[in-house]
Known about the structure:
Elements: H1 2-34, E1 46-49, E2 66-72, E3 77-87, E4 95-104, H2 113-128, E5 132-140, H3 144-152, E6 156-158, E7 165-171, E8 189-190
Parallel strand pairs: 3-8, 4-5
Antiparallel strand pairs: 1-2, 2-3, 3-4, 5-7, 6-7
Helix pairs in contact: 2-3
Amino acid sequence: VIHALMIANRTAGLICLTLALLPTTILCLTSQNRKGPFTPDASALEYRLANSSDTLITDKINPTAGVFLAIDPNKNVVVGSAEFGLVTDTDGTREEVYVTEGYLRKAWRRPGLPSKMLEKLLKYIHTRRPQVAFAWVRLGRSDEFITGEVKKAGFDRCDSNDWEYRDFCYEFPDATENNPPVDDGPFPVIPAPSDD
């Protein structure tokens, strides 16, 4: 009888200990989950022009466009990208860059990354080609998330006659034709987008 009672007390003790530790275990697992890829830190990413060894999120739409990347340095994975290029066939009064496409991995579609990536892209453009007067993007009217991120990066609404899209422009504050381009290889050039 005494032996059976000791086993019962051990089992009850284990059950009590397990029940006491269960909330702590759940809290720890939940905390670990929040620190994963679902809480991205845009300032901890590497931002640069793509090279041939990078695995892009999707294939390029415009073959002559440059691709600017946001890379998670811990996993060496591209988490965001933007296609861009110097627009040809403009009126010739000033140079402009068009950001044609942008992509984010699903887990990284959070506030902060698109605006940070655009800020870094604008800095890259201005460093490489200081005579560029402005950059612009064309967004779907229904994408409020990206619209907010573009505005946060410093873009303002500019003229657009399209009922489906909105154009946003960023004017470089100190662009002049007298600023020579930095000779660091060719700068991507793309055809002017059509308004149809």
